[in-house]
Predict the structure of Carbohydrate kinase.
Amino acid sequence: SRQKIIAAVDLGASSGRVMVGRVGADRLELSEAHRFANEPVRVGDTLHWDVLGLYRGVLAGLRAAGPVDSIGIDSWAVDHGLIDDSGALVGNPVHYRDARTATVLPELTQRLGAERLFRTTGLQQQPFNTLYQLVAASRTPSFAVARTMLLMPDLFAYWLTGETGAEYTNATTTQLFDCGYQDWAWDLIADAGLPASLFPPIRKPGDVIGPARDLPGRPNVVAVGSHDTASAVVGVPARGGDFAYISCGTWSLVGLELDGPVLTAEARRANFTNEGGVDGTIRFLRNVMGLWPLQECMRAWATDDIVGLLRAAAQEPALRSVVDLDDPVFLPPGDMPARIAEACRRAGEPVPDSHAAFTRCVLDSLALAHHRAIDRARHLTGAPVEVVHIVGGGARNELLCQLTADACGLPVLAGPVEATALGNVLVQARAAGVIQGDLSHLRSLLRQTQAVTTYRPAGDGKAWRNAEERL
Ligand code: LRH
């Protein structure tokens, strides 16, 4: 039967990978060609991405993948590079956890109005939204020579093909995209003082971008849901529609898949976001701090023994100390154990006294935040939720999956870990014509081919309600 070999480049905040998918009408297999660390670089006061190092990893991975029929690229959202008239990169892209936008967000919100921003773009307020980053960039000398803004996956696609454009799902995360008119929000762009000429034409998942000039066989680069979360949600092996998802990695993106945006004042105040998905869907979700606090604790402790930490955390008493992970104090890099200890002290919770206790505190708090977001999403939409899908690296974390099931009082279906790469591959496979149909059809192929683990909720949830009240 007909089959394609498809490369998915998936760049996450802590690592990048090039995966190879083999896809046919009832076949979907994924293997890893190459994985590399993504280590940000601080220069002076600014936190940068090592974009050239990442591009080297992408090229090494694509060479290791061997001959492929097409290539798709996804990465974390909101960040961008600027290129000049000659196509050269202007400056080095800045990490979304950099502090340069701290004063820009309140300033622009004041000027443009929180209601107008939400009504137009459907987007949550985050200091790292591209809007605030671009306004910060526009106050630097090099901005004068910037001609085109390229979001991260579009920048790598440009380096591979020479073609510029802005992929739709990721463009919707900029807070500069009009979710009603489905185009750049030109009035907002003008009122923010940004040049309209910076914004390239929109491309849609499935569009061919162009051949990769320097790779043997010159395979086409094809647009996918280039926002990693858009691809991850394509990769949720859901049956039917009554599900919530948690795309769990550095962040936990917690929410629902809807047909249209929810633009109510309640949704805005709850800081929910409406991101554009594949096939015109909307990801109505909340950014929850995710595994970032644990990753940063591990960096502070100079350990990478996640298995040992989780085993020890599972032996700790449940819900001894919980913190509000929605607090922006946890956003920047730096001494995370100290910030968690301080948050516990302030809230009158026992301060964790071991690595295991800190780990348990983060996981209990994260499970609580998962529940809070799902509960909020249900209330804001009236949508029924029968089951919670956890995809991404967090699906491998048995303790977190069980705690999330317990906190939510719902079954959790965990996996696939590589949902993002699978969603990336599936959209390319459909564009190539080896598979057909809508998202529910793509998901039935996932259900046939990918392993999923079920966690049933234990207990009556009382301890979780009590902990919630303590927050
Ligand atoms: C996850 C993610 C998330 C964004 C954040 C910046 O990787 O793309 O959806 O909010 O990074």
The chain has a mean pLDDT of 97.
